[in-house]
Amino acid sequence: xxxxxxxxxxxxxxxxxxxxxxxxxxxxxxxxxxxxxxxxxxxxxxxxxxxxxxxxxxxxxxxxxxxxxxxxxxxxxxxxxxxxxxxxxxxxxxxxxxxxxxxxxxxx
Length: 108
Known about the structure:
Elements: E1 2-7, H1 9-17, E2 21-24, H2 28-41, E3 44-50, H3 57-60, H4 62-65, E4 72-76, H5 79-82, H6 90-102
Parallel strand pairs: 1-2, 1-3, 3-4
């Protein structure tokens, strides 16, 4: 079983650098189709889904997911959404994200 991320092409590079399998989509319709393909393939245990593409991934593939336990769908806030409010800049966000993930603060 695999772990994958469904996100836009701009955000995909960061996940690829982290060693994850990435599936990209440019807009909502394409994201729904890609996610449905991933669910039907039965290859994935976890699919992290960019909320910028699919605000509610469970609803988007509800019909395909019926009767299935896997994959687990994990929505995450896209970078565009995270900075839309203008409260935090990208550097601070990435620093916090890296620190919470690896336990070390790095200077970007």
